[in-house]
Write a structure and sequence with these properties.
Elements: H1 2-24, E1 26-30, E2 45-49, H2 52-55, E3 63-67, H3 81-92, E4 101-108, E5 113-116, E6 123-125, E7 128-129, E8 146-149, E9 154-158, E10 180-181, E11 185-194, E12 200-201
Antiparallel strand pairs: 1-2, 2-11, 3-4, 3-11, 4-9, 5-6, 5-8, 6-7, 9-10, 11-12
């Protein structure tokens, strides 16, 4: 009997430790859609750092996970409590995505003016055309024109698969204008963990070499 108690206490301790790590250091998120293809595929699990932005700033080009409540997602859910609990458990285990958590790429940071479109269908940041090598093949910068100045404390976020992404463009004309509060950012996506054959790091882009302004 004492042995079973030890096993149960050990399991409980492991669950608590995992919960603390995922709450404060790293978390794992399930990718439910193709909005970030070709970088991320539906069903991928990605490792997200919750600590990186405590010591560094959010940069253009970063792939971030954020709480979309109040922007892309409603503030409250009308689902029954039991369903919410089961959904939360599946999300915690990495078996399902969340209706309120999203993953997108940072295109505009505070002070930037982000606009679309150039004659070639691309974006400009602060009046300069940019190259976006991560876009889904065949996609343009955006099919929806926009011209936005990002205020302090906000971000302009877009999916890499622009023709299949609900992102900041979706909220044009709504309160907040599609600008996501920086405080809602949970962390930066750092690595694809699963499936194993796709396991790889998600590096921060070197803005002067990859996500560079077109000369």
């Amino acid at each position: 009997m004492a042995g079973w108690r030890f096993v149960l206490w050990a399991l409980a301790g492991a669950v608590i430790l995992a919960g603390l790590v995922r709450a404060f250091i790293f978390d794992v998120y399930y990718i439910p859609s193709g909005s970030m293809q070709p970088l991320l595929e539906p069903g991928d699990r990605v490792l997200v750092s919750r600590t990186e932005y405590r010591s560094s700033e959010i940069q253009r080009g970063d792939v971030v996970v954020f709480d979309g409540r109040g922007s892309l997602a409603p503030l409250h859910s009308s689902d029954p409590v039991l369903k919410q609990a089961l959904d939360a458990t599946a999300q915690w285990l990495g078996l399902a995505g969340s209706d309120t958590v999203y993953i997108k790429r940072v295109i505009g940071v505070p002070g930037d003016r982000v606009a679309c479109c150039t004659d070639g269908g691309g974006l400009t940041v602060n009046g300069q055309p940019i190259r976006e090598p991560y876009l889904f093949p065949g996609d343009s910068g955006s099919e929806t024109p926009f011209d936005v100045v990002v205020p302090e404390g906000r971000l302009w976020l877009l999916g890499d698969h622009r023709s299949d992404s609900a992102d900041s463009r979706t909220l044009l004309g709504a309160p907040g204008g599609g600008l996501i509060p920086e405080e809602r950012v949970i962390g930066r996506a750092q690595r694809i963990l699963w499936p194993f054959e796709r396991s790889s790091g998600i590096e921060r882009l070197e803005l002067d070499t990859v996500w560079q302004f077109v000369e």
